[in-house]
Amino acid sequence: MGTHRWNTGRARRAALAATLAGGLLLAGCSGDTGTGTGTDRTAARGSGSGNRAPAPGAPAPAPGARDGAPRPGADGRDDEAREAPPAGHLSTFALDVDTASYGYARRTLAEGRLPAADTVRPEEFVNSFRQDYPKPGGNGFTVTVDGARTRVENWSLLRVGLATLPAGRHDERPPAALTFVVDISGSMAEPGRLDLVKESLGVLTDQLRDDDSIALVTFSDEAETRLPMTRVEGNRDRFHGVIDELATSSSTNVEAGVTTGYDTAVEGHRKGATNRVVLLSDALANTGETEARAILDRIGDERREYGITLFGVGVGSEYGDALMEQLADKGDGHTTYVSTSEQARKVFVDQLPAHVGLRARDAKAQVAFDPGKVEEFRLIGYDNRRVADDDFRDDRVDGGEVGPGHQVTAMYAVKTRPGALNGDGHLATATVRWLDPASRAPHERSGSLTSGALAARLWDDGTKPGLRVAAAAAYFADSLRGGELPGAPTRAELAEHADRLARTTESKVVAQLAEAIRRADDLRD
């Protein structure tokens, strides 16, 4: 998997983790907890990065209490404190629901090319498959921890799954103030680029509520505000007219588009609404500042002051994946990739209107492995989302903003000590920490796994289909990056596993995964 590091020390601090802004995604994963449904509690607010974080499974310290001291849980029961393991047995990351990497890899493979290794992000492959995690009763998450043994002795694959409550048909949500920033440069003339964007925006216009607002900015070598922030009510025909007039022009100045987009969003900012910039582009910047940091430095103050997030929608057979990901990460947002009308409709029609709300702010996860049973482990992916272990309960450190119905899955390759799976003792605890969207009060929820829960073999028919799908996606992504995870099947074997899973689950998207794996196997050097 290219360069990768086996965990023997504390996790490195990431740059800013992407916040997920309750927006638009194609992804999720599923399963059951290894030993129960998890423990929910209201947590003490972190005071800074200088305090050592208690291990997941140990309660957060109450205000004024020392770290690790027991305190009542949200349900009034005392949580059992567990001694924090050594730093080398903690893994901490900010939540992420991006899926663009998998979508672009499928497009590349369909065109007869292997995706570049640096565009492959395993978590985005895994998070492209929605499953059946249990749902919480309100804001916040459920926590699922499960796993199975691989064919290599003492190596298992462990899955941590987090899920928020979907939006109900009649759920109230805040109004949306959406600024669409549309690339109309010459490269967008290719079929499946601007034509797909125009179709998507046209359909979306008819789906939004009357109290929502839309602004539209276009850019090529320069940027232009085609429509200031305008209420939907009474203006749908006007929106359609502006969209229909969009046509391609010259070069791609992403800097001008994003900067003007944020200027327009700030000018039309609506208090109490979900304010978001949606960038639709192939991200092949060739004019102005082409580095994401330089672009976002120009609008950083407005972003922080007004809380406007950026969601990137990538299009095109040639796609600036790295730039789009950096823009979304630094712009407190996330990305997806669309190449067909069906995918675009799913994002802009099925998901955007329902996912404008927010379930959790600054969400992070931390997994604590029992050092007596786990010899080494590796988090598969999340390379740009790692957070220092000590910052797990520092609420000044950014996490992910997660909306209704979102799911996040993290996969770990875990080497247990000889004989560790013979009993049924504690193996690992996963904890998610988030801030309430309204009050910003911190909360945590945990789920644990016992060694006895790893009795099943990964590819046996009796192992949960969701776990096997997540494993296939993770192994496939790792193989595209040149990795060699212990117990990983060959691509031909993976394709067979995915084919069997597609028949078992009757899932079109799993069948597409099998097809992508088979194409990659045919293209291998």
TrEMBL record:
Domain of life (superkingdom): Bacteria
Leader peptide range in chain numbering: 1-27
Comp. bias intervals (Low complexity): 63-73
Record's compositionally biased regions (Basic and acidic residues): 74-83
Keywords on record: Signal
Keyword Ubl conjugation belongs to the record: no
InterPro entries: CLCR, Uncharacterised_YfbK_N, VWF_A, vWFA_dom_sf, YfbK_C
Pfam families given in the database record: VWA, vWF_A, YfbK_C
Record domain VWFA: where: 177-352
Region (Disordered): 31-92
Entry-linked PANTHER family: CALCIUM-ACTIVATED CHLORIDE CHANNEL REGULATOR, ZINC FINGER (C3HC4-TYPE RING FINGER) FAMILY PROTEIN
Protein name: VWA domain-containing protein
Biological source species: Streptomyces gobitricini
